[in-house]
Amino acid sequence: MAGIETPLTDVLDLDVPVVQAPIGSATCPELAASVADAGGLGMLAVTWRSPERTRELVRETRRSTDGRFGVNVVVDDDAKSVPTADHVAACLDEGVEVVSLSFGDADDIVDLVQDEGGVVLQSVGSADAAREAAEAGVDAVVAQGWEAGGHVQSEVATMPLVPKVADAVDVPVVAAGGIADGRGIAAALALGADGAWLGTRFLATEEARAHDLYRERVLDADETDTYFGTLFDEGWPGVPHRVLRNSTLERWQDAGEPPRGERPGEDEVVAETADGDSIARYEDSLAVPEVTGDVEAIPLYAGQSAGLTESVPSAETLTERLAEETRTALNRTRSLLDASDSGPET
Ligand SMILES: Cc1cc2nc3c(=O)[nH]c(=O)nc-3n(C[C@H](O)[C@H](O)[C@H](O)COP(=O)(O)O)c2cc1C
């Protein structure tokens, strides 16, 4: 099948301008490889993984695909224990060629990656941040709008953000937030983006490491079922995030939305990780398959695009489907133009 070529596919050497966004510990070699096999970019999110584990995941992904994949590291030190440079150095040492950075400054990392022949992407939430990233020398920017699931860098919606960012920089722009099908990708391209970055949609794939209950909640959700705020702040304080409405959120809202320190059940342990570590009610933990306990009560990160997410295909099938839908949507737009051009003169 013919690809869709854009400046992003040129920079990243892809067949289609579709990126499986880093979705924390729900990413895994199977997911990234499946997307890469379909000509998109698969991503491993490694922030909360040790450099040793990161190396294993990179090797496993490489063994599974000849396609393109990259890694994502959150730069903000408040989010993690491993310094960004250590993570990036481990990845480069394993031959990783695409590094995406979010929530922080790419300045110190750009040379590190590009000196090894790699490509650097930075997530931004405004045109100013995009300009700064471009000045730092990144190869592409990811404009993440407010609709996005997970931790969110912007209070501007994708629709106004993407054209502002596209006007601000000369490097390729990837649109993120609120995109779940080919209509969204075509719209992003029309807004001036060169590709799309989909997180919530890829949660509902066969390969993503999402707990069954979490995946079901994403499938059931309408576009109105998310909350944006700073409620689940233990572990990474003060950073806004978007999650599905759940019992913890409802209890807090019923209590009048009290501040940190006075929230209901603040000292409660609600679930447990596979290693037996406890997960507190307001902790920024991810509902991976091994989590036990009251999984519904922990943050179920998802964007407004959950409303458009209704099936669980393999990530390869999804990537192919997204490309096909994008073609259909672009053709539809073109046919509107053709029909207007050939219409009767008035
Ligand atoms: C479960 C989940 C985990 C995420 N983890 C990360 C992460 O580790 N690093 C990052 O830069 N963004 C992360 N994000 C944000 C995504 O990369 C992406 O920007 C977002 O999902 C796009 O919006 P969408 O969910 O509407 O597609 C996460 C999003 C979700 C839903």
Automatic annotation (TrEMBL):
SUPFAM superfamilies: Inosine monophosphate dehydrogenase (IMPDH). It comes from Halorussus gelatinilyticus. The keyword Flavoprotein applies. This is Nitronate monooxygenase. It holds the Pfam family NMO. It comes from the Archaea. Gene3D superfamilies: Aldolase class I. Keywords: Flavoprotein, FMN, Monooxygenase, Oxidoreductase. GO terms for molecular function: nitronate monooxygenase activity.
